[in-house]
Design a protein that fits this description.
With 291 residues, the chain is of the alpha/beta class. The protein has eleven helices and nine strands. A seven-stranded parallel sheet has the order 3-2-1-4-6-7-9, with helices on both faces. It has a two-stranded parallel ribbon with strand order 5-8. The longest helix has 26 residues.
């Protein structure tokens, strides 16, 4: 899909971070938008940012864990825009705690948000995407869908699941010669509020130092966002650039590329290697890459 003008794109998690940045970038391209988020206030802020763009925008306030609301969503988008061409499953959350600390409710909360909602959104919208001459389905995984770390078992399982599901669907669409292009995105450390909004079962400063040194979880959320080498706007541009090039596997940030290669070359010693980039960042105080 080389041209986004006059298309209709649905974005989950559009109230902030990469979702908001994608909305702005797509609006600049002349793409109409269906914006989804659980937070009405932040969703309206996103809408206001693109108010002067010559595109139509609909907002849909809902929790993506709500299966009944998701079932109703395709028809609501069709009613507002008459079509749907692009679906971007971007929304996510993190539950931080050891396997012994997290409970059944944490697993349900995390996997319903990270994985089950992606599966349902995909299956509900796929018949509508199939009707278009060209369409795109974009599922956002993570570098933690490429390798695992301690105290992120729920996030790891969710993002590994998104990767597996998306890759399987991509092969099916290619075999069927479907007009739907399927993309899986692996963001590295992006300057968003995901860490700040995480559900913490415990806080380990040593593990959190992977993103930057902080004494407590409140400060860690700030450090995570401020220390990120890649901004949401940069991430959004990388995603759209790769969709134009039909690159189905999208790595975002030099850290994502480094960890992807290192995890393949040094699987047994990878957990020691992953600390190289955080150490280098603290040593040289790398700045965010906004361009």
């Amino acid at each position: 899909m080389k041209n986004f003008a006059d298309k209709v794109a649905l974005i989950t998690g559009a109230g902030s971070g990469i979702g908001r940045a994608l909305a702005e970038e797509l609006a600049n391209e002349g793409c109409n938008l269906a914006l989804v988020d659980w937070n009405n206030e932040s969703l309206e802020e996103t809408k206001e940012l693109i108010r002067k763009k010559n595109v139509s925008v609909s907002t849909h306030v809902l929790d993506i864990k709500d299966k009944e609301k998701i079932k109703e969503l395709p028809q609501k988008v069709i009613n507002s825009h008459n079509q749907i061409d692009i679906v971007i499953n971007n929304a996510g959350i993190s539950v931080i705690g050891s396997v012994e600390e997290v409970n059944e409710d944490d697993w349900s909360f995390g996997l319903d948000t990270l994985l089950n909602s992606v599966i349902q959104m995909t299956t509900e919208f796929l018949p509508h995407l199939q009707k278009q001459k060209e369409a795109a389905l974009v599922n956002v995984s993570s570098i933690f869908g490429l390798f695992s770390v301690p105290k992120q078992s729920i996030y790891n399982v969710g993002k590994f699941g998104v990767k597996a599901f998306t890759e399987s669907l991509s092969m099916e669409m290619q075999a069927a010669e479907s007009p739907v292009e399927v993309y899986c995105v692996f963001p590295g450390h992006i300057g968003t509020d995901i860490y700040k909004s995480s559900r913490f079962k415990s806080y380990d400063p040593e593990l959190s130092a992977f993103f930057g040194v902080a004494a407590n979880k409140e400060d860690a959320g700030i450090v995570f966002k401020e220390n990120a080498p890649t901004s949401p706007s940069k991430a959004a541009r990388v995603i759209l650039k790769n969709i134009r090039k039909k690159n189905k596997r999208i790595l975002i940030g030099y850290d994502a590329h480094f960890y992807d290669i290192a995890s393949r070359l040094f699987p047994k010693n990878f957990f020691k290697i992953i600390w190289i980039l955080p150490f280098m960042r603290e040593l040289f105080k790398f700045k965010k890459r906004k361009s």
